Amino acid sequence: MNNKWTSVIAVILPGILAVPAYAADTGSELASQPALSEQDYTKLKQKLIYLNQQIKLQQQTINQMAQQVLKQEALSRQDNTANVAATTQPSEPQSAQASVERQSQQSTQPAVIANTSDRKKAPDRARSTDDVLQEAHNVFSRKFTIEPSFTYSYYSRKDLILRGFLALDAIFLGNLNLDRIRTNTTRFDLTTRYTLNERWQFELSLPYLYRWTQYDSVGEGNSSQRYETAKISGGQIGDVSGAVYYRIITESVDWPDVVWNFRLRAPTGKDPFGILLETSDTGNLTYPTEMATGSGVWGVSTGFSLAKTFDPAIVFFNFNYGASFAESFDDLSGSAGLSPGEIDLGNYLDYSVGLAFAVSERMSLSMSFNQRFYTKTKQRPEGGEWDKIPRTDTNTASLGIGATLALSPNLSMVTSIGAGLTEDSPDYQISLRFPYRF
Q: Does residue 57 sit in the same domain as residue 161?
């Protein structure tokens, strides 16, 4: 310890030790005297006040000295550490004064540093909300994920077909047919995702589709009470797709998580062109002989997705634009013979918005709204001009709710139920996903 502090302690310490001794002498004198006069009482009171003040001053002095001693010892330890580092790893010499100044600056600005780091750090999410966010946005904290999924959708549509003409603007002469189509689609997907780093992620999806469709038409035997029915079913691999995701902005207190995506779809499924059509004996019902499981053309899509955490909820938004490439086929019609030509399925624009709410670390709830607009499909016979096919521009929209449950440290179950809001949308859809992360 420094000689300066040793001398100061040597001066103060006797005074501290003298206080209890003086108090003991005063107490013995008081005990020997049975009673005090008014004058002695006043003097004794003044002495007591004086001693109390001295004790407070001495305590303040002791505290100041202790702080100075601790500060001096801290500086000594810091100098020793700097000397050891300088001997083991040669670097530019730093003076003790610069080290003290740097330490002083750090101690005077802790709140600013903490505030800056807090604003840069993304809010923590529950694992269950990450599972939901992976489906609607992206999660870059998982190195490798395998996700088998099962989706069932039901679609029903009724068409009133008029074959004839109006007479006198009020009387219809001809046939009226009420056709109904009911389609049950079961889809199995195996999706794998690999995260290269906190910016890049790659995805590959392999689908398998099985469809069962029933066609009904009123008018069997020219009776309005009887239906002609045809049932078609079949399954095959669908269109394989791959995607690349790039995180543009990492979520912070002020900014949402922004991810750009690009997806490529390959025509690996059974295309719907050239499938033969079969007609019932009465000619009242026409239906295909096979089920299509793919689009038959290459397609690409790109877009952005945003997600923002408002603990314990997450709000997300997606916007995508997709396009299909025109392809040539040996047969575009389902009638006998070949009708070669080109087909262009058109483009689409879609968006979705949703909310995920963490009930606990292992369970969360979500709801979303999705809408997609398709342009008309165009076809061009060989040697002809492009012609738009009526009623191929569609508008699909659905409202979905779901729940996520963590089954184990690596396995989760994501469920969702969607209800169609337009005529072109499936009536309802049920989905089960089981992401397993490594």
A: no
Q: Dihedral angle at the C-alpha atoms of 83, 87, 92, 97, nearest 10 degrees?
A: 10
**Which strands form 341-344's sheet, in the order they lie side by side?**
327-329, 341-344, 378-381, 387-388
**67-72: Cβ within 8 A, 24+ apart:** 68/5, 69/1, 69/5, 72/2, 72/5
Domain of 93, in residue numbers:
3-108
How many Å apart are CA 49 and CA 59, to the nearest integer? 16
Banded pLDDT at 125 (limits 50, 70, 90): low
Residue 117 lies in a domain: no
Q: Same structural domain for residues 100 and 134?
A: no
- CA–CA dist 327, 295 (Å, integer): 11
The domain tally of the chain equals 2
| 287/294 Cα distance (integer angstroms) | 18
Q: Write down how long the chain is.
A: 438
pLDDT digits (tens, 9 = 90+) for 72-85: 887 877 777 666 55
CB hemisphere CA count around 301 (13 angstroms): 20
Entry pTM:
0.66
Q: Give CA 56 to chain center in angstroms.
A: 61
Does residue 119 sit within a domain? no
pLDDT digits (tens, 9 = 90+) for 246-272: 999 998 888 899 999 999 999 999 988
Cis bond upstream, residue 312 (ω within 30)? yes
What Cα–Cα distance (Å) separates residue 150 from each residue in 136, 191, 298, 435? 17, 11, 24, 12
**Residue 378 has which token pair?**
């165009």
